Amino acid sequence: MSLDYSNLEQIKCALFASFEKEDWDSVEALDSQLTTEVENLVNRAAFAGQNERDALQSMLRDIQSEYQRMLIEAKDKQSELGRQLKQLNNEHKAASRYIDSAKYR
């Protein structure tokens, strides 16, 4: 029994492209689809030959490493957004102090 990886490959490519575009709704939906497809392939792999199982295992390692990369990038983006939010908050406080001081002139 030969496993068909085309659907897995399409979902994987769409997921990573959506991540790069920061289309978080698509990332969430595609992540769910990818998980379902992986589960289906793993179940079918039980009836496949060793070469097919090895190929699937290799693909899953590639996907896992791509998820690790996405996680690192997401944490970096989170840190950058946190820094920007802190800067905006400081600027807002400074503007508020200026406005308050101008009231007493």
Search tags:
3 helices, 87% helix, mainly alpha, 105 residues
Describe what you observe in this structure.
The protein has 105 residues and is mainly alpha-helical. It has a domain of 72 residues. The radius of gyration is 23 Å and the shape is rod-shaped. The termini are far apart. The mean pLDDT is 91. Keywords: Coiled coil. This is Flagellar protein FliT.
The profile of the biggest β sheet is: none
Which percent range fits the helix content?
over 70%
| SS content category | mainly alpha
The number of helical segments is: 3
The unreliable regions are: none
What is the succession of H and E elements? HHH
Mean pLDDT: 91
Query: What Rg is obtained from the alpha carbons, in whole angstroms?
Result: 23 Å
Annotation, overall tally of beta strands: 0
* Strand percentage: under 5%
How far is the N terminus from the C terminus? 84 Å
Overall morphology: rod-shaped
Protein name: Flagellar protein FliT
Keywords: Coiled coil
Coiled coil: 53-91
Organism: Oleiphilus messinensis
